[in-house]
Design brief:
heterodimer, A: 313 residues, mainly alpha, MetI-like fold, 2 domains, 76% helix, B: 290 residues, 0% strand, flat
């Protein structure tokens, strides 16, 4: 034992001359300084990102009752999956994601293409489109809930429909209209960011490409298809993925517009179910299990999606 | 200006010109209606009395505008206190993000300690984790901090500390610092400046635009955030605006709730109108090259 501890000490002293030793000391000091600057951020990441990630997975296999924590295997998962709301929530969440993709993904791109062609009032239009993004979501959603989606004829949307001699709607009180209404509000609140990002990438398209396409006799739609879309493909693919990951976590829309579950459970989302289990049914372990399921679904989707989009190259 | 989808010449002549102007007017009208219309409806609707808001068809202008809903909202929901809370949390968020995230980005960009890239990678990896997945374990952490067993419930630290763990900010700042020439730093070192001194006297003065973007994003983030403050700031004294309005919405007349929502939205709208250039530049620079 004694020789073993001494050996490396003497060995190091013999091998390293004095010069490299001070350089090593300086290197160590530099590293320490570097980490002194990093420590605050590392502490916060460890406490609120890295550690919770592991803890969430651990929690999902545990059960805590009266302060006693024990391992329960897959019990939490079984309980969560057997909850009838589980499948409803996933169905609703997928439905919301798909509707939001149709409306919320297409509209910003079209708006950006149109805005990019206009030579006047550019600043004004950009401000307009981004304005709703700056509102606190709770404020915007109360506006939709009380004024726009008022099911009586005094509501803003019903008044417009009536004015146009179209049938009015019950909005959030109708199970079939709940989702479209939530998607509409959500798109209005969130589309500004995507529009501005598309506008920036549209401005990077070299004008010669359009010039050449026009000389070849390509009309406007053809030019969009053959120049605009291929040139913005990367950002289009990236935003589609970010949007899907964001809409799969839809929470505040059902909470405020539909009081959580909505008429006949038509609004319950997976994120709302996590909230329900964790903070109302006092089932933090079940909520953690649901969170892990959501993480897996999103991870599988992202991996699949990345594979699909990078394959084309 | 370089040409876009439709050439400049085409828009200037005859039919193209008429078409361009009619599209422009159409777009202006539709955008104003779609994006300002609801806000107009919100502000004026809250000026209407309970009877007027229930009238069919709804009135375009309030017939008898009254500020009662606004004053009721201000007094009954204690909006002054809620607004002060939110403002205080936002300021703290700006301070801690600026201090810790700039320090971290500086270390990763210029000091480059061993395993710096591993740390950066671990930070960026958190961008891939959906926020909802972390909400439960984060809450469990906040109510009982590991080792010290202190609860952060109703303490502003519960909002500030998680906000420092913002990989997007660190990435944005690091990329900006990367563009500052190494020669400047070397010159400062020759003059005997310590790393802290270099950061303070050379890096930070050159980074004002990006620091501005980070600060504005921090303020709007705190102002807009809902679920996390709802969980960790449950008492009426510590709530944020959005959470407070939501908590009162059940037993309050809808016009008063909307009036409160209008008041809650005013600060972010003002911030936006003042700093719109910085906000839009930050948004596109951060995402495009990311």
């Amino acid at each position: 034992m004694a020789t073993m501890t001494i050996a490396p000490e003497t060995g190091r002293a013999q091998q390293q001359p004095a010069k490299t030793r001070t350089r090593g000391g300086r290197k160590l000091r530099d590293n320490l300084t570097g980490y002194a600057f990093l420590i605050g951020a590392i502490f916060c990441f460890a406490l609120f990102s890295w550690f919770p990630m592991i803890r969430g997975i651990v929690m999902s296999f545990q059960h805590t009752k009266r302060g006693v924590t024990s391992w329960v295997g897959l019990d939490n998962y079984v309980r969560i999956v057997q909850d009838p709301s589980f499948w409803t929530a996933w169905k609703n969440t997928f439905y919301f994601t798909v509707l939001a993709l149709i409306l919320g993904y297409l509209v910003p791109f079209v708006v950006a293409i149109v805005l990019n062609e206009l030579r006047h009032a550019k600043g004004y239009l950009r401000i307009l489109v981004y304005l709703p993004v700056m509102l606190p979501p709770a404020s915007a959603l109360f506006l939709f809930k009380y004024y726009a989606y008022d099911p009586s004829d005094a509501g803003l949307f019903n008044a417009i429909l009536k004015f146009l001699h179209l049938p009015t709607s019950e909005w959030m009180q109708s199970p079939t209209m709940t989702m479209p209404a939530m998607v509409l509000a959500s798109t209005w609140m969130n589309m500004g960011g995507a529009v501005l990002i598309y506008l920036a990438s549209l401005q990077n398209i070299p004008g010669e490409l359009y010039e050449a396409a026009e000389l070849d006799g390509a009309g406007i739609l053809r030019r969009i298809w053959n120049v605009t879309i291929p040139q913005t493909r990367l950002i289009l693919a990236l935003l589609a993925m970010l949007q899907i990951v964001a809409t799969m976590q839809v929470f505040i829309e059902p909470l405020i517009l539909a009081n959580g579950a909505g008429t006949q459970d038509s609004a319950t989302s997976v994120a709302y179910l996590i909230y329900q289990h964790g903070f109302f049914q006092n089932d933090l372990n079940g909520a953690a299990a649901l969170g892990v399921i959501m993480l897996l679904v999103l991870a599988v989707f992202s991996a699949f999606y990345l594979r699909l989009t990078t394959k084309e190259d | 200006m370089s040409r876009t989808l439709i050439s400049q010449a085409q828009l200037r002549r005859g039919r193209g010109r008429i078409l361009y102007w009619s599209v422009l007017v159409g777009v202006l009208a539709v955008c104003t209606l779609v994006f300002i219309g609801p806000l107009y409806w919100m502000v004026t609707g809250a000026l209407k009395s309970g009877q007027e808001i229930a009238r069919t068809p709804p009135t375009l202008f309030p017939h008898d505008p009254q500020t009662r809903n606004y004053t009721d909202a201000w007094n009954n929901l204690n909006l002054a206190k809620l607004m002060f809370n939110t403002f205080y949390y936002a300021l703290g968020a700006v301070f801690f993000q600026l201090v810790f995230d700039t320090a971290a980005a500086y270390a990763l960009s210029k000091l480059r300690p061993v395993f710096g890239n591993v740390v950066l990678g671990a930070m960026l990896a958190t961008l891939m984790i959906p926020a909802m997945v972390l909400i439960v374990p984060q809450y469990v952490t906040a109510i009982d901090l590991p080792f010290v067993h202190v609860s952060l419930i109703d303490s502003p630290w519960a909002l500030w500390l998680p906000l420092v763990a913002n990989a997007f900010n660190i990435f944005l700042l690091k990329r900006f610092f990367d563009s500052i020439p190494e020669d400047l730093i070397a010159a400062a070192q020759v003059d005997g400046a310590s790393p802290l001194r270099t950061l303070w006297s050379i890096i930070l003065p050159m980074s004002r635009p990006i620091l501005g973007v980070v600060s504005i994003f921090a303020v709007t983030y705190v102002w807009k955030d809902f679920l996390w403050p709802k969980l960790v700031m449950p008492s009426p004294e510590t709530r944020t605006l959005s959470v407070g309005i939501y908590a009162f919405s059940g037993g309050t007349p809808m016009n008063v709730v909307v009036a409160a929502s209008v008041i809650a939205a005013i600060p972010t709208v003002i911030i936006f109108l003042i700093f719109q250039r910085n906000i839009m530049a930050g948004l596109t620079s951060g995402s495009l090259k990311g």
